[in-house]
Amino acid sequence: MNSNFINKEIFIKKTKHDIVRSISTIKWIFLSIIIGVIVGFVSGSFGYLLQLVTNFRLQNQYMLYFLPLGSLFIVILYKLIMKKKDPGTNLVLSAIHSNDEIPLRMAPLIYISTIITHAVGGSAGREGAALQLGGSIGNAIGKTFNLHSKEDRHIMIMCGMAAAFSALFGTPIAAAIFAMEVVSVGIMHYAALLPCAVSALIARAIASNIFGISAMSFSLKNIPAFDLKSAVIVSIFAGCCGLVSIFFCICLQQTARLYQWLFKNVYVRAVIGGCVILLLTLLVGNQNYNGTGTAMIAACVKGNIYSIEFLLKIIFTALTLACGFKGGEIVPTFYIGAAFGCMCGNLIGFSPSMCAAIGMGAMFCGVTNCPITSLLICCELFGLDGFPFYLLAIGVSYTVSGYYGLYSSQKIVYSKYKSNFINKKVQ
User: Which of 45, 51, 220, 297 is most deeply buried (CB count within 10 A of its CB)?
Assistant: First the structure.
């Protein structure tokens, strides 16, 4: 009797646990669908407007002359609404580490300011807007459904990040993993895998089918055989990409500090910064370094870049973000990696197209410290034919880039070089 009673009690407990797990799974599927739909519509409309204003600027060069006014307007907007220093994407990441609050007003602010940045010709990406849009909306939806647990709140934020990244970039697999990987280097938040995957796939479908946001994808030319010689070449090149990623991160940080030191007044800084970008654009004589530069990335993958385009993009992006414009650094990172790779490929005679693809993946890994996401992005953008090259290059870049990164709130939980718990922020 005692044995039967114990077995019955174990069965009841197991059944209760199974029911709890089932309810939890249903809950997260339901919430992730809501986030995917809402963020999909918001991010889809955002991507659509970005395309419109970019095409308008390219057809009407006079828009560049609004660069000083554009930066000034954005700074005033943030001063009036945020009323304190804007931490941007770092706030989204720190909210997952801690109980920092993400205000919902961050979403419309980054939405409007990024569109202004691209309308007048600032050199920036869109992932900064994606992560802030998704993170703030996910957090707000969590509040709406009274999710008081900080762990649940963190998953909601990651779902929003994954959905927005997927909608704008068209890489739902990489987006789902990126939201889990970017927060803490060395560990993965696997509890968020299913919700992030569902949100990313739904948001991508909405952005594509309703707003016509096409996915980034490229066809590689002249893929070489993966042998000892090519492996050595790729390893050396990837190491150089890791160093360039460090240089890019330092340039972003130091340019911002230099502007703050030279121009104490934020409004003066915004106007002068806008004038500097305008002057540089006029000196260059084209808009190759303004906006995201997606067309230039395509040219790099075709093997058509021979000069130091990557260095000019670094300069334009650093100056843009330092003076008050909003956007992101990921698409510029792709541009820099593709241009650096294409240039090196042409110099050494090793498939410029493949080098551009490798450069994009290696640079992304170097600035985000997200090797798994980097590998998935390469596969989604370029296909599986170059998989051994991507894997090797990302591994080398991840090691060489050290503890530098774009997001100061990102934590290096485990060392890149030993299985040691270090728990430090990126440099």
Answer: 297
